[in-house]
Design goal:
mainly alpha; 1 helix; about 95% helix; rod-shaped; transmembrane; membrane; transmembrane helix
Length: about 50
């Protein structure tokens, strides 16, 4: 019984950890690419491509 409970808790913790890591990677990617997206939007409005 304790083995099954430990496996379930481990699986839940692993899923939460994976979600947090992917969320942090997404936020870092957004911070890195934000200036380029903003510049592209400005240029698109400015030069009316």
């Amino acid at each position: 019984m304790a083995d099954i409970l430990g496996w379930i808790v481990g699986a839940i913790l692993e899923a939460v950890a994976e979600f947090v890591v992917e969320l942090l990677l997404h936020l870092v990617w957004q911070m890195i690419t934000w200036p380029f997206r903003a510049a592209w939007e400005w240029a698109s409005r400015r030069f009316d491509w």
